[in-house]
Amino acid sequence: MPVTLTQKSALVTGSSRGIGAGIALKLAEHGVKKIAINYVTNEASAQATAKKVQALGAEALLVKADVGKVEDITRMFKEVKAAFGSLGIYVSNARATLQTGFYQNAMEIPVENWEKTFDSQAREFLLAVRESVPLMTGKDCRIIAITYEPGGRTGSWMPWAAMGSAKAAKESLVRYFAVALATKGITVNSISPGACDDSVLSGLPPEVFGQIKQWHESGWTPMRRLGQPADIGNACVLMCSELSSFVTGQLIHVDGGASSMDSVFPLAIQGIT
């Protein structure tokens, strides 16, 4: 039986392309009629995503805003309120760009770049949820944070020190807001994508991205492929459906089983041939 979402409107940050666009398209495909597409600089990609959303029968609103800036967050929600009146779904997906200089290890990253990274994740989520809630007047409203669970558990991806820490802080806020908003009928959950095509990984040097892809196809992702933006979009649809109305404060891995792998043992010992 196909899932049809009852929420009438959604805002997805960082949705001009990649994972954010995949989420926006899946929400439109499953019945959300008004979708705000947030972008910072790539208006052409935002327009392309808007056309795809419209082809699925939904209204698309383009909102240019840098979620790392307080004034942009405030303005973004004002524009959504003016256009939609209310909000049923908020997906916090945007992150600082590689150009902000966050992709450096902990011994080298300048403090200002560290702060920009946290501003785009933990501070953004704090402020955006506060802005979202007054607009969430209907039943079964949803808030979803796109995070990276290994960032709060591992330390081997050295240049990810700032983003991993910021994502971990964001995941912690998810749990606090889940408790705070439960009586309002608003669920708050986080989704952690695994290695995904058309994501931040795609912006790495081609030889690096190629190694990552080969690594996961070799079996370190049991399903032997990288994730796709549509995979993350499908998970968002599931968490926004009425079937998930009693699920809140949870972290959902969408990684083809990669989080279940044990790095201590070679693939052959783990039963991967």
Description:
The protein is an alpha/beta fold and 273 residues long. The protein has a single domain (9-200, 229-258), classed as Rossmann fold. It has 7 helices and 7 strands, in the order βαβαβαβαβαβααβ. The chain has helices at 18-29, 43-55, 70-84, 111-132, 161-181, 206-220, 229-240; strands at residues 9-12, 34-39, 59-64, 89-92, 141-146, 186-193, 251-254. It starts with 8 loop residues before the first strand and ends in a 19-residue tail after the last strand. The model has no long low-confidence stretch (mean pLDDT 93).
**Which percent range describes the beta-strand content?**
5-15%
Tell me, briefly, the overall form.
globular
| Multimerization state | single chain
Sketch the topology as an H/E string, one letter per element. Answer: EHEHEHEHEHEHHE
Our count of helices gives 7
Q: What number of structural domains do the residues give?
A: 1
Judged by helices, strands and strand pairing, the structural class is: alpha/beta
Helicity, as a percent range: 40-55%
User: Mind summarizing the main beta sheet?
Assistant: 7 strands, parallel
What's the CATH H-level homologous superfamily? NAD(P)-binding Rossmann-like Domain
The overall strand count is 7
CATH architecture name? 3-Layer(aba) Sandwich
- The chain-level mean pLDDT equals 93
Distance, first to last CA:
35 Å
What is the CATH fold-level name?
Rossmann fold
